[in-house]
Amino acid sequence: MPSAWVPKGGEKRAAKGAGRVRGSQEAPANGAKGGKKTLDEAAMTPFLREITLVSSGGAFLDGYVLSLIGVALTQITAQMSLTTHWTAAIGASVLLGILVGSIVGGYLTDIIGRKKMFVLDIIAIALFSALSMTDATPMQLVIYRFFIGVFVGADYPIATSLITEFTPKHHRAISMGMVSAAWYLGATVAALVGYCLCDVDNGWKLMLGSAIIPCVFLLIGRCKVPESPLWLKSKGREEEALKVVLRVYGADVTLEGEEEAPKTKAGFGEVFSKGYAARIVFLGILTLCQVVPMYAIYTFGPQIMTAFGLGVGKSAILGESVLSLFFLVGSLPAMFWLNSMGRRPLLIRSLFLMAVGLVVLGLFPTAPLPVIICAFGLYAFFSGGPGILQWLYPNELFPTEVRATAVGLAIGISRVGTIVATYGTPIFMAAFGIGPTMLVAAGLVILGLVLSIFMAPETAGKSLGETSSL
């Protein structure tokens, strides 16, 4: 396979790449002229940080709406006398929506631009969250949750493409780490909101409708974000691209030396051509192995906490919020380790430790409480690095003209597994118990570990032109 894809020299090369990251004053490597910097060499300004913040809002909403349904279902199931299959359908419907939205949204984002989609999807999420507050039937809830998922899924390739294309290379891992941290923050806030509303009559309506509040703030912030200059350049709109560069970076930054205008049009065919197909398969399976256990834990968090003896009712919800904090805290150092340690070694080590935590939970589900907490903590804390890389890798490994499409496809592949797992988790737990359920989750993480050992690339310290080349 091409050298830009399969690392040679393993972790030693990763260490060299990390060394290049720390040297922020290196000579221009992308062919900039006249002493000007390229986008990859530009300084990280307050406006660029604001772009990262409002772009991360979609991930916050994903973590929020996905996790809150687990708490809301404890009320909905009792109030509507739902069967296990209806409970699973409501939980899995948002994931089916994410599958559709990530693929279609990624394709449209590469065709019509990042900016338009960036605003429209937030408006749609607020609309369907408002509809969820009505006296909905189980089928209506499935439909509303599906469309929330569609627009949450569409936001993945939109927002992460914008962050990647605006952020200088030395800050890319940290900026994408903010996306992952925002997901866990959303999940943590959801657990706390659920804890406060779980004893309120019809509290589930307030839970599902509360997503409108962050949508309003995000809509205000996103209206100020310009179109990606790299996307504009890829469409031959260089004059508009230069105006955006001048506005965002200043007069000492140039588009020269960045990715050249594509020789082919954006589309699914281009993504699967040449060496890109192998990258899509790797990223799709890796993301599937990483998110399936996590989504199952978040969607049915209170039930899983109860199965491990970590409380019933509000106590179980509180236990889920503590677990969510482990996920959040683990993503913070991982932002910096991705540069200092390198993408590949951090991924492999993290997946190994995550698997250890899940194996302990699977083999010893009745272990003393401190053991259960430590095993959950081990799994959740070291999910930080892989959690960031599920956003960072696909954005680094594909060129501008197909970046959003590729991100959407990778996420779409992974969501096939999450739909099956989320629908099947309560059914599997009822039939076989919590121990075997955790062992299945461990098996998936181990599969991701083996795949990463053979296929994970090292992209630290490289420009987008280098990481996306074949």
UniProtKB/TrEMBL annotation:
Family, according to the entry, reads as follows: Belongs to the major facilitator superfamily. Sugar transporter (TC 2.A.1.1) family.
Q: Report whether Transmembrane helix shows up as a keyword of the record.
A: yes
* Annotated region described as Disordered, given as residue ranges: 1-37
Q: What keywords are annotated for this sequence in UniProt?
A: Membrane, Transmembrane, Transmembrane helix, Transport
UniProt membrane topology term: Multi-pass membrane protein
Q: Which residues cross the membrane?
A: 51-73, 85-106, 118-136, 142-164, 176-197, 280-301, 321-339, 346-364, 370-392, 404-424, 430-454
Where is it mostly found?
A: membrane
Localization recorded for this chain is:
Cell membrane
List the Gene3D superfamilies: MFS general substrate transporter like domains
The record's listing under SUPFAM superfamilies reads: MFS general substrate transporter
Q: Is the keyword Membrane in the record?
A: yes
Among InterPro entries, the record links this protein to: MFS_dom, MFS_sugar_transport-like, MFS_trans_sf, Myo-inositol_Transporter, Sugar_transporter_CS
Which residue range or ranges hold the Major facilitator superfamily (MFS) profile domain? 51-460
Recorded GO cellular component terms are:
plasma membrane
Q: Which Pfam families match?
A: Sugar_tr
Q: What is this protein called?
A: MFS transporter
Which GO molecular function terms does the record list? transmembrane transporter activity
